[in-house]
């Protein structure tokens, strides 16, 4: 019997058993491991990037409401505090808009204005908790534009009359730009105190913005980029502990010039511990996302207008717009502010030598603002 086929099978089987196995590529395994780790990291970031819901105001289990509030058409409440002469005899009604990380209680017209000057000028001042701050309900749809119409509706509900003044400090000053854009017919005048500047406004020259941006502390440069390009990541960026968050949130003093440090000592140095704790905790009591983080996203996100395209709201000099800026401000670039007012000739510019971002705490400063705005001589 022929054994040829069996021999052929045996030879083939032998060769298959003696053939060496191909080694697994270590680089391929490493690549797969990296992808798995990256996917896990991205999933973790996504989960931690989702902000917690804000703490509820006024419910049986929620935060206590201690302020007077006005209900808007959409059901949200705005909290406020009134000062100055009584509304029914006031010569002028002023709405004050606080800055980043503050609340209606950070009202310089109560803390530093001279009562005699306020009475002499007949000024009635209303300080608002901006949405998400203090005891004002958050606005999940908040934009630069929406706040202007909130103010208009608020003024009507409070019976402030057909025209009123607006004064905004720092990021509150950004809202004043919005009022000048969307409700100029309701304004008797406006003041911007060291108003925040969005580095991505189209009409800002790139050479000026690049230079000013480079002078910001590194951690703030990153916070601004996150707020502008990936706002959904703002909560994670400003709450994680791996990298420095926005300097004000982080409690850094690197952004304060010497006069600002003195202003802080003056503002908080004389407070008792309970009052100091309230001033620090009240602004963000509903959570930092709806106050601080959303503020960054709105202020440094994409605007639907550029302030430098605005027209004079008072062409017949029936009112005026003033911008006050400290020459030593390390938070808002004075070089960009100078360029803005050069383009908007109708804005009256006041630059204070030696002053920083917190210049409203300087003695006599608020009195000067009121006299200038209301066109009253010393």
TrEMBL record:
Q: Respond yes or no to whether keyword Hydrolase is given for this record.
A: yes
Q: Which domain of life is it from?
A: Eukaryota
Q: Where is the composition biased (Polar residues)?
A: 1-15
The UniProt entry, under InterPro entries, shows: AB_hydrolase_1, AB_hydrolase_fold
**Pfam families named among the record's database cross-references:** Abhydrolase_1
Query: Where's the AB hydrolase-1 domain?
Result: 94-224
Q: According to the UniProt record, where is the region Disordered?
A: 1-26
Q: Which SUPFAM superfamilies match?
A: alpha/beta-Hydrolases
Q: Name one GO molecular function term.
A: hydrolase activity
Which keywords fit this entry according to its UniProt record?
Hydrolase
Query: What is the name attached to this protein's record?
Result: Alpha/Beta hydrolase fold protein
Q: Which organism is it from?
A: Artemisia annua
């Amino acid at each position: 019997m022929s054994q040829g086929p069996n021999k052929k099978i045996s030879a083939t089987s032998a060769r298959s058993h003696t053939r060496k196995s191909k080694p697994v590529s270590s680089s391929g395994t490493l690549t797969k491991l990296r992808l798995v780790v990256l996917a896990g990291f991205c999933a973790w970031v996504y989960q931690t990037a989702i902000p917690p819901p804000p703490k509820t105001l006024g419910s049986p289990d929620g935060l206590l409401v201690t302020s007077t509030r006005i209900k808007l058409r959409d059901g949200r409440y705005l909290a406020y505090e009134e000062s100055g002469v009584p509304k029914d005899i006031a010569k002028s009604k002023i709405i004050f808009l606080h800055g980043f990380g503050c609340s209606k209680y950070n009202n310089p017209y109560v803390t530093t204005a001279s009562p005699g000057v306020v009475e002499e000028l007949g000024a009635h001042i209303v300080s608002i908790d901006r949405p998400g701050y203090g005891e004002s309900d958050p606005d999940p749809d908040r934009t630069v534009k929406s706040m202007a119409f909130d103010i208009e509706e608020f003024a009507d509900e409070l019976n402030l009359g057909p025209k009123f003044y607006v004064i905004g400090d720092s990021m509150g000053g950004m809202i004043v730009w919005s009022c000048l854009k969307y409700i100029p017919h309701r304004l008797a005048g406006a003041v911007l105190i060291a108003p925040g500047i969005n580095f991505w406004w189209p009409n800002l020259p790139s050479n000026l913005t690049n230079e000013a941006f480079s002078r910001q502390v590194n951690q703030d440069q990153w916070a601004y980029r996150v707020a502008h390009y990936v706002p959904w990541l703002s909560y994670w960026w400003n709450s994680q502990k791996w990298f420095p968050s926005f300097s004000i949130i982080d409690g850094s003093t690197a952004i304060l010039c010497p006069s600002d440090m003195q202003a802080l000592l003056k503002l908080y140095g004389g407070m008792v511990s309970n009052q100091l704790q309230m001033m620090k905790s009240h602004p963000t009591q509903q959570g930092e996302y709806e106050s601080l983080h959303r503020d960054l996203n709105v202020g440094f996100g994409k605007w639907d207008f550029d302030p430098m395209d605005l027209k004079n709201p008072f062409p017949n000099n029936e009112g005026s717009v003033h911008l006050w800026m400290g020459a030593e401000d390390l938070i808002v670039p004075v070089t960009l502010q100078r360029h803005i007012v050069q383009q908007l000739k109708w804005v009256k510019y006041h630059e204070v030598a030696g002053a920083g971002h917190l210049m409203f705490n300087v003695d006599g400063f608020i009195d000067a603002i009121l006299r200038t705005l209301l066109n009253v001589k010393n």
